């Protein structure tokens, strides 16, 4: 396996390369493409929802289909769009930022992606096999346990498989950041994005098991006749709510924390200043992660937990506003007096600060348990979480893609089209969701299929729908930008933004081994230090030597495919026990490939020093 | 260490290993005693309100022994695994506490 030759490969060879790759940069592209496709699917579902609600008493979609649309919109956007896009950014940037040649477990990285991908595909197959899940993205029991058809079964199996992938990915990044930092890269010199990726991985490690347990209980309730969530048989359906939110609340921090880190890096780069209050920022991230585990019951204030539990969780929730406030102010202070360049990433970042803060205000309002009885399950909640997730995560993903596009593909997204995409999206976003706060306060419940005319809800909903179309226009302009950029294919230098961190010290796109020689890190913003005090290049920490690289492997794909097949078997064995054969066959494929992986020694290969000197792999 | 023929360092490690062996034997003996005490309390049919908390306490101490003396968590460089272990224990305890107090109680 020699990639030393830089010849043009055919389509088949490229496809095979991506199916078997263990390179973190290629896996990042896989995450980006898969997450992008699911994002478009989720966006399409959102558009259908908004068209249905554009006018009162509409019959654009049926009630049953509407339930499927809202369920799949939420599930897709959280698990299949936001998570992989975050993983795309983490994969492209974290190893480069810490000066590593790859993640700690390249094989597991690939396995994590394929598990996520097949889980997502399994979930979406349900559209074509008699109905998607329709119990809401939270799948509260008993609605989910009694929902007819196989929709919720697909939800359970799809999320179980993709959740395993996410867990694997999280552990991989933990080990990478702990063990693979370049010499001199101490914890308190790590770029903020790496720090937040670290805390996010911790949250994944501790939060996803709760989801796994919840989904297992749900699986046994629905498919194997258990009664964990059935009060008549001695079960308790509130347990599902707890398990779901013990996972679900940290999940929103899993999504938004890397974005916080990304914005910190972007603000620092484009203000030409060291991040204000670096250690306070790190402290705030860790504190948000810690507090994130003690607030889940604020999603359940109206479940009847009692005043004591409600008060405890209300206060814990409000406490999170403190570290978040620290971050907001530090971003502002970083920009203060800086030499600011309003590039596209910076534009998204500057738009993020007020948008996200508005979402935070809504959050503090919702945290007041007594007042929450008024807001609960209304459009106020919908407005709040779209403000934090779109205004935080989606803005952040756009900013991050513009920022790291050179590291993904070696080209730069057009600044002009980037800004042109920003404005309709930004205006449309506020148009769509700001007014939903008021719709909620006026009593419009969420998840309802239609609303009646002449209840003062008509205009607000129409405005909201118009906003949604503007957002769609923004997203389409971004896609055009991507196509135009890749058709032009103008290569850029390794450091187009005048960056501060290690990923900008190597070419764009980086050679597959990233660093020819591991760099020596002398402080925070290592490349900036070298630019100011050195010759602008990183000092190598080791002599030029052979580089050990892992071999590509097709096993992760097969392993995940086995679970995908087994998923169908388990879903349909409810109707006909013969389907168990499919389930067993799928499990055998997975276990067989695990066995092959265990007994076959795969020691990787070396790139030799002489080849490196000749410029191997630098294309 | 095999390459190191320096007798002082050899003596040092010998001494250290000996000490470690001593601690392992002591904890091993203590763990057996704890187990015997637990069984004894059940056989003697003490009040369960007394027996159950004591057995849980002894179990916790045994877990500590296991981690620190047999799995070498007392050694240097195990700070991070310890941190993650305790964080995990914290999250799990919080979950169980919530379930016990606000779901089942």
Question: Notable features of this structure?
Answer:
heterodimer, A: 619 residues, mainly alpha, Cytochrome C Oxidase, Chain A, two-stranded antiparallel sheet, 2 strands, globular, disordered N terminus, B: 105 residues, 3 helices, 82% helix
Number of helices of chain A: 19
Strand content of chain B: under 5%
Helix proportion range of chain A:
55-70%
| Strand-residue proportion of chain A | under 5%
Q: Which protein chains make the most extensive interface, counting residues with beta carbons within 8 Å of the other chain's beta carbons?
A: A-B, 16 and 14 residues
Number of strands of chain A: 2
Helix and strand sequence of chain B: HHH
The CATH homologous superfamily of chain A is called Cytochrome c oxidase-like, subunit I domain
Rounded to the nearest angstrom, the radius of gyration of chain A is 24 Å
Shape of chain A: globular
Overall morphology of chain B: flat
Alpha-carbon Rg of chain B, integer: 20 Å
Distance between the termini of chain A: 16 Å
* Mean pLDDT, all residues of chain A: 94
Number of helical stretches of at least 4 residues of chain B: 3
Please indicate the count of domains of chain B: 2
Mean pLDDT of chain B comes to 85
Number of domains of chain A: 1
What is the makeup of the main sheet of chain A? 2 strands, antiparallel
Summarize the structure in words:
Chain B: It is a multi-pass membrane protein. The complex is a heterodimer of chains A (619) and B (105). Chain A is 66% helix and 1% strand. Chain A has 619 residues and is mainly alpha-helical. Chain A has one domain: Cytochrome C Oxidase, Chain A (Up-down Bundle). Chain A has a two-stranded antiparallel sheet with strand order 1-2. The model of chain A is unreliable at 1-6 (pLDDT under 50). Chain B is an all-alpha fold. Chain B has two domains: 1-74, no CATH class; 76-105. Chain B has helices at residues 7-43, 48-70, 79-104. The model of chain B has no long low-confidence stretch (mean pLDDT 85). The chains are: A mainly alpha (619), B mainly alpha (105). Chain A binds chain B through residues 178, 202, 205-206, 210, 236, 238-239, 242, 246, 293-294, 297, 305-306, 309, and chain B through 80, 84, 87-88, 90-91, 94-95, 98-99, 101-104.
């Amino acid at each position: 396996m020699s990639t030393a030759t830089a010849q043009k490969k055919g389509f088949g060879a490229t496809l095979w390369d991506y199916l078997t790759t263990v390179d973190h940069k290629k896996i990042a592209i896989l995450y980006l493409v898969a997450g992008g496709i699911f994002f478009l699917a989720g966006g399409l579902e959102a558009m259908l929802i908004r068209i249905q609600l554009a006018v009162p008493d509409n019959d654009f979609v049926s009630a049953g289909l509407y339930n499927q649309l809202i369920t799949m919109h939420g599930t897709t956007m959280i698990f299949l769009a936001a998570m992989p896009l975050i993983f795309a950014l983490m994969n492209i940037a974290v190893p480069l930022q810490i000066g590593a040649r790859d993640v700690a477990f390249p094989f597991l990285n690939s396995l994590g992606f394929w598990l996520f991908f097949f889980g997502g595909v399994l979930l979406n197959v349900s559209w074509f096999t008699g109905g998607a899940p329709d119990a809401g993205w939270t799948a509260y029991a008993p609605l989910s346990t009694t929902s007819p058809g196989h929709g919720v079964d697909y939800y359970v199996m799809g999320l179980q498989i993709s959740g395993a992938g996410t867990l694997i990915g999280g552990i991989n990044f933990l080990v990478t950041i702990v063990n693979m930092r370049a010499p001199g890269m101490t914890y308190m010199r790590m770029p903020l994005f790496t720090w937040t990726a670290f805390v996010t991985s911790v949250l994944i490690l501790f939060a996803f098991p709760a989801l796994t347990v919840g989904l297992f209980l749900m699986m046994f309730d629905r498919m194997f006749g258990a009664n964990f969530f059935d009060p008549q048989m001695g079960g308790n359906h509130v347990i599902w709510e707890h398990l779901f939110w013990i996972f679900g609340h940290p999940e929103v921090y899993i999504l938004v924390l890397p974005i916080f880190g990304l914005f910190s890096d972007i603000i620092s780069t484009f203000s030409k200043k060291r991040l204000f209050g670096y250690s306070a920022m790190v402290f705030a991230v860790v504190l948000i992660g810690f507090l994130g585990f003690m607030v889940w019951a604020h999603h359940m204030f109206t479940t009847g937990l009692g005043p004591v539990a409600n008060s405890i969780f209300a206060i814990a929730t409000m406490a999170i506003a403190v570290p978040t406030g620290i971050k907001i102010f530090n971003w502002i202070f970083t920009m203060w007096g800086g030499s600011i360049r309003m590039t596209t990433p910076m534009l998204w970042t500057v738009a993020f600060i007020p948008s996200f803060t508005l979402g935070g205000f809504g959050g503090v309002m919702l945290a007041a348990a007594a007042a929450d009885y008024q807001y609960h399950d209304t459009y106020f909640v919908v407005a709040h979480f779209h403000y934090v997730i779109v205004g935080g995560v989606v803005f952040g993903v756009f900013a991050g893609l513009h920022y790291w596009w050179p590291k993904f593909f070696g080209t730069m997204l057009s600044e002009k089209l980037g800004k042109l995409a920003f404005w309709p999206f930004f205006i449309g976003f506020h148009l769509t969701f700001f007014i939903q706060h008021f719709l909620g306060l006026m009593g419009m419940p969420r998840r309802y299929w239609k609303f009646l005319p002449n209840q003062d809800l008509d205009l607000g909903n129409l405005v909201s729908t118009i906003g949604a179309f503007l957002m769609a226009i923004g997203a389409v302009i971004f896609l055009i930008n991507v196509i135009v950029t890749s058709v032009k294919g103008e290569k850029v230098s390794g450091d187009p933004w005048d960056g501060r961190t290690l990923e900008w010290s190597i070419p764009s796109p980086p050679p597959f081994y990233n660093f020819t020689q591991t760099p020596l890190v002398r402080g925070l913003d290592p490349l900036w230090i070298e630019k100011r005090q050195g010759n602008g290049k990183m000092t190598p920490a080791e002599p030029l030597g052979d580089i050990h690289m892992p071999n590509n492997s097709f096993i992760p794909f097969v392993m995940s495919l086995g679970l995908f097949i087994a998923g169908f078997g388990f879903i349909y064995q409810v109707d006909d026990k013969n389907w168990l054969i499919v389930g067993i066959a799928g499990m055998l494929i997975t276990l067989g490939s695990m066995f092959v992986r265990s007994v076959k020694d795969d020691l990787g290969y070396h790139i030799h020093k002489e080849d490196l000197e000749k410029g191997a792999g630098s294309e | 260490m095999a390459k190191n023929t320096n007798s002082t360092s050899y003596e040092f490690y010998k001494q250290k290993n000996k000490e470690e062996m001593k601690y392992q034997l002591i904890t091993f003996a203590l763990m057996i005693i704890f187990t015997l005490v637990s069984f004894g309390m059940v056989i003697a049919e003490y009040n369960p309100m007394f027996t159950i908390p004591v057995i849980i306490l002894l179990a916790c101490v045994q877990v500590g022994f296991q981690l620190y003396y047999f799995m070498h968590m007392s050694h240097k460089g195990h700070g991070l695994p310890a941190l993650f272990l305790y964080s995990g224990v914290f999250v799990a305890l919080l979950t169980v506490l919530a379930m016990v107090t606000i779901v089942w109680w």
